[in-house]
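#lab-general

N.A. 3:47 PM
ok so I finally got the sequence cleaned up, no stray characters, all 103 residues accounted for. can someone with queue access submit it? mine expired

B.Y. 3:52 PM
send it over

N.A. 3:53 PM
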Amino acid sequence: MKIVIKATNIKLTDVLEKYTIEKLTGLEKFLKPVFEKTQSVMHIEIGKLSKHHRTGNIFYAEGQLFLPGKILRAVAERKNFKLAIVEIKDELQRQLKHIKRKK
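B.Y. 4:20 PM
back already:
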């Protein structure tokens, strides 16, 4: 699985990039039974929302997983960057399990 990361309103450090890739590569084990021979691409956008929030930083993460004939999408907004990444991973994992059960 190829992962493309885009950062908005934040600097994409090595730590953020490594954490994101580490968490999302775990989805490959759900792809193999259903989409064995195809190459999937995941686009991840991470960033900080605008300054209209009154207290604290709000981070968001958006993930789109492009599969043959399907596009899976998940969005999360959290006060912690890592929680937002984990939330989109869990949502995409849930969607992949649903596709696996249907096939």
